[in-house]
Amino acid sequence: GSACTSGSLDPSHVLLALGLPHEIAHGSLRLSLCEYNTEEEIDYIIEELPKIVSMLRDMSPVWERIMKGEDYYAVQ
Known about the structure:
Elements: H1 13-17, H2 22-25, H3 39-58, H4 61-67
């Protein structure tokens, strides 16, 4: 979605339009960068983001079902 809707809790209308299930689209993450971001900030995100994603996936029943082999288009 656009920057003006980034505070919304609704899933991305773009991901929904692509056919992703609501539960999968709702779990999306959007990062925005600009010319003022420093290399150190980007390095920090590269370092920390995988840990954060892993922690969130560990809490997600949807991710657990996908890891068990369920087709994510069938996740409801």
